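Sharing in case it's useful to others searching the archive later.

Someone asked me privately for the predicted structure of T9SS C-terminal target domain-containing protein, so I'm posting the question and my answer publicly. Question first, with the sequence:
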Amino acid sequence: MKNQIFSYLTAKGTMPYRKMRIMAVLLMITGLARAQFTHPGILSTMDELNVVRNNQAAEPWKSALDALKASEPGSLSYAMQGPYSAVYRGSNNNEGWVQHGRDATACYVQALLGYITGDSAYTDKAISIINAWSGTLNSIGGNDVELLAGIQGPLWAQAGEILAHTNTGWASSDITRAKNMLTNIFLPPMEGFAAADGANFSTTCMYATMAIAVFTDNQSKFDDAWNAFVSTAGCPNDFSLYKNIAENGQNVESGRDQVHSWSSYEMLSGLAEIAYHQGYAPYTLGSNRLKTGVEYWCKYNLGGSVPYDESVYRCRAGWGPWPEISGTNRGVPTGQGSVCNMVRRAYERLGQSTPYTSQMADAMGNTIVGATPRNGWGAPFIADALLSNTPATSVSLTATAGDGTVSLNWTRNGITLGRQDVFRDTDSDMNGRTMIAGDIGGGTSYMDNTAQNGVTYWYWIKATDASGTIINSNSASAAPSSGGPAYYQLQNRGTGLVLDGYGRTANGDDCAQYASSTNHVNSHWEMIPMGSYHQFRNRGTGLLLDGMGRTTNGSACGQWANTTSTNAQWRVEQFDGAYYRIRNVSTGLYLDGMGQTSNGADCGQWASTSSANAQWELVLVSSSAGIGSSSADTAVETTGISIYPNPATDKVTISLATPSKNANLLIHNSLGRLIRIEKVGGQEHELDLSTLPRGVYIFTLTSGAGKFIRKIVKE
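And my answer, the predicted structure tokens:
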């Protein structure tokens, strides 16, 4: 791919343009915007960013932030050096790549400072930089275009992760344009991971591809990078974890020089950290191969002796073998960012020590002040690099989910306590969080009994010491669940009461209505799809809601044991927003509250009417480990079902591996209210979301292939 210019402005009507359009469609179908990624989730997560944000006035964070603000890319007076329509890197042309790198670095640093300090001036500058480049850049090229894309492209992705997922107000159209820039301009030259070069070229492309894949929600590209990372195939593979780093820790460029040798170690480490943030376990692979490699390099560059195997060399490009380990560039690097602290902390999480890596991290920390255009892993990486330093005062919080409850436990370090408050939110951003318990005394535990099953919550403890200083805990999340089927309360719009089995367990017993109590199983009903209809099974009595064959207006509804009779089948019809009418298949009458507002009053049936007494809201009160829980999204591979794009704007497409006549789709909002029921037919089904407000929705699709549960973001 060298000497090519990669552009998405190929002329319309030409074969390359048509191929490009086909490839774009295939990418969308096979993975783009379909995966469920953790955001932010490249080199720093929200919790890691919050460690710095919550401790920015304390050391060592304060000094690191002061140095970052004083650096060129961190200054509010930074003057953008681009944008350009084309950028090149290589011996034949070096136009614009230095300026592009500086602007990309500044964008990342300004985005980082904007979130940590809360100063919107940094955020606004970051947005202006990325918008300018995404609206201008058409192509990148040159002999070393892979390194241009691989080293500088991830900076845009890292900035984009922070700007897009921390409520900055970055316009959705601008986010899309930035994602398109990375997808259409930066990813193509890295396709195949620099096949002709291997080694540090390939590891750079692998790292960058995974970083961009997270920001753009491209599962297919993420998988490509991960599969290259774990490949055990022999040469010409000299770039995977197993083939770039030998069992003794040496890598394929140890005999060339120490700068290029380090490049592969750092890129493989960066890829591992991204994968870790996305739920993978890269650090223990190959008997801790990454640790062995980084320890090897650090020991040698700190002056120690290491073993050397001449047979380990850069086989793909035919460089080497070298007779001995190279002393070129040996020592503590001063011009590159360090990932040593990241690797040290990764193995601390596993209870393992990294003596040489830790020593190198401390040495590098004394030499690096500002960001570099190379990778932005210097001072901007403070969220991860300083997490190993426990502040003098801290609160460490954990959250454990139960059935309708979340148990919080925490420890305090070095705090003379004044008061404690408990906060909760439905996202990980502490802005806008709600206090659910104030001044709770000096304990270190709290039970949230107001949590709703199927909803993921984030919690914080805000401790105030005797002098008035505020110490925020880390955020801790949990998704309470019953571990069984999904249950609803059916609340009548007219009476305000909910449908209740009333503890009656005999066939033919009437149903009743009762004031809402989410904890009472007699008011919980399981919705069971029956083709175009549903059955409603009471959680307390175990009986099905039944029309009893009664066709007179005002006749009571009953309950009956397991049956396939049409008397126990109901058509759920959306009527007014989140309200439904529920019609019995056999009697033709609608479930009706009858205007009766006393606890225990019968629930009846009535002919077609628009009365509020015939309107019901279905509210999820208890769900299986799935609805609303990011950890329970059913994998596409196991069901053959996918919903894309995600995030979506006006429409989504539901794709089934095999055609279905009556797949059943339930859509809930983030509060658990059932807002739509759809029947999905065929193999591809397009669903209009234009009437839904922005927010997070839970799609539950049941078909012959199984149950598929997925969070969908409507933008």
